[in-house]
Amino acid sequence: MNKQEFYQRLAEILDTEEVKPEDTLKQLDGWDSLAVLSVLALADSKYGASIKADEIRAVVTAADLANLVESKKK
Amino acid sequence: MKCVFKNKKISAVISVVPKEELRFDDEYPNYKLTEDKARRFKKMMSLDRHRIAPPEVCSSDLCQYGVEQLLAEGTIKKEEIGALLFISQTPDYFIPPTSNVLHGKLGLGLDVQCFDINQGCAGFPLGLMQAFMLLDLLPAGQKILLLNGDTCSKQLSNCNRISYPLAGDAGSVAIVERCAEENPIYMDVKHDGSRHTALMVPAGAYRMPSSPETMKLREKEEGVVQSLEHIHMDGPAVFNFTMSDIPAQIEDVLKFSGNTWESIQHYLLHQPNPFILKQMTEKMKLPPEKLPSNVVSIYGNCSSVSIPLNIALNCGDILLKESRRVLLSGFGTGLTWISMVMDLGPLQVCKIVDYQAAAK
Q1: Of A11, B158, B197, B290, whose Cβ has the fewest other Cβ atoms within 10 Å?
Q2: What is the CATH architecture assignment of B185-345?
Q3: Dist. CA B177–CA B175, nearest whole Å
Q4: pLDDT per residue over B316-340, tens digit each?
C-alpha cells in the first residue's frame, strides 16, 4: 500500500492541505463521524479492507489508521 | 429464511408525503455548521430538500389519506378490504394498535383484520411477506391494505446535524391480492438481534421509561445534540452491515430465483442516503441507472416508505403500463434485512401525492 497516497486521500476527505503520519485524528478539524464513514468507504472500495466499528474507534494517529487499513487489505 | 409465494401480487402503490418541504440551504444555520462543513456534507450526501410532517400529523394520517384516495378513485371498494397491516415505528399511541384506530376512522366491518408491526427500513418487504401469508386465510376477493408509515423526524433532534437533514416523513398504501397467474415471488428474510443496538431509541418505553433525565439533550459530537429518546445510530456498524450483508443477500436471492445481475431490470432498494447507495452500487458492479439513489435528495430517508417512493419516482410511468422484473431490498433496525425478486406490474395506481389535511 502506498502510504503517501493514503495520506493524500485522507487529506481530501478532511478537506485539508496535508495530513502527516503523526497527526492525531481527533485534533483535526474535519475528523467527525462523516469523515469516519468516508474512511470506511475508502478502505472498502480502494483497498478492499473491511474495518470494524471498534477498530476505527481505537485509532489515534493517521499512521495508526494507515497501518490498520494495510493490515486489513485483501 | 428463503421462501417463495405464488399467485399473489401487488396491484397498486400510493405514497403520501407532507406538503411541508425543508431545504438544506435554509436549514443549515440551525445545525451550527461552518459553511465549509455544510458544503462538504451537502456534496457527500447530495442533500437538497426533504419533507417533514407538522407536529399534528402522524404516520397514520398519511396512510389514511392514501387509503381514502384509493377508495375515492375506485381502485378498491371498502367491502374488498380484508385486513389492515400497519408497519411503523411511530404509532399514534402505545395502546391501542394504530391499525385499530385506522379501522375505526375508515369505518370498516368487524371481520376486517388489524395488525400493527414494529419495523423500520425493512418494513415494506416484511409487510409484503406478512400480507402474502395472510391472504391465504381471507375469503376470495378480499384484499390486504399494506400501510407503511413513518414520521422519523419526530424521533430525531433538529439539532442533529447529521441525521435530521437526511430524514423524511411519509406514508404509503399497497394493495396486495391474489391472482390467477403463478407469478412466483422469491424472498430471503434475515434477522440479527445480536446487533439490535446499532439502530435504536434507547429510552421512552419500558426498559428505560421516559423521565427528565432521558429527555435531557446531550452533545454526542460537535453539532450532534440528542436525548436518549431520539434515534441512536452506530454509523460504522450500520455502514459495515449495508456493505457486507446486503450485497451478499442480493446475490443469494438472485441465484435462488434463477436470475442474474443482468436479468433484473430495476434494483429498488431502501434509500438511507445517496452516499451509501453509491458505495453499494460500486460493490455490486451495477450500472447506476439500474439502482436509483434519488429519493433522499427529494423526500429524505423515509424509512419503510422509501421503497414505495422509489418505485413510483423511478418506475411509476412504466409500471402503469407493463410488468418489470425488480429486486426490492429493505434493511435496517433489528437488524433485519430482506431482499426479494418479483415481476411487478402492471399496477392500477403508482404515484406520490401530497397530504391534504381534512377540513375540520
Answers
A1: B197
A2: 3-Layer(aba) Sandwich (3.40)
A3: 7
A4: 999 999 999 999 999 999 999 999 9
Stretch B286-297: mean pLDDT, rounded? 96
State whether B41 and A34 contact (CB < 8 Å): yes
Mean pLDDT confidence for A15-30: 88
pLDDT digits (tens, 9 = 90+) for B60-112: 999 999 999 999 999 999 999 999 999 999 999 999 999 999 999 999 999 99
CB contact B346 to A (< 8 Å):
no
Contacting residues of A for B44, CB less than 8 Å apart: 34, 38
Asked if A50 and B237 come within 8 Å (Cβ–Cβ), the reply is: no
User: Cβ of B35 under 8 Å from any chain A Cβ?
Assistant: no
Q: Is A53–B236 a contact, with Cβ atoms under 8 angstroms apart?
A: yes
Closest among B241, B266, B260 to B333, alpha carbons compared: B241
Which B-chain residues 237-296 have CB contacts (< 8 A) with chain A?
A: 237, 239-240, 243-244, 275, 279, 282-283
- Choices 1.10.287.130, 1.10.1200.10, 2.40.10.10, 1.20.970.10: CATH for A3-72: 1.10.1200.10
Q: Determine contact: B236 vs chain A, CB below 8 A.
A: yes
Residue in the block written with cell 375506485: B74
Q: Under an 8 A CB cutoff, do A34 and B40 touch? A: yes
pLDDT of res. B151: 96
Q: A15 to chain B: nearest residue by CA?
A: B40
The CB-side HSE value for B214 (13 A sphere, CA atoms) comes to: 16
| Nearest chain A CA: its distance from B237 CA (Å) | 5
Report how far residue B222's alpha carbon sits from residue B208's, in angstroms, rounded to the nearest whole number. 26
Give the one of B40, B224, B236 whose C-beta lies nearest to A36's C-beta.
B236
At residue B241, the 3 state secondary structure works out as helix
CA B300 to chain centre: 11
In chain A, the percentage of residues whose pLDDT exceeds 90 is 35
Q: Give the rounded distance of the alpha carbon of B139 from its chain centre.
A: 28
Domain boundaries defined on chain A: 3-72
Using CB atoms, pick whichever of A30, A32, A50 lies closest to residue B244. A50
DSSP state of B227: -
ipTM of the complex: 0.86
**Percentage of chain B modeled with pLDDT above 70:** 99
Q: What is the DSSP letter of B140?
A: T
pTM: 0.94
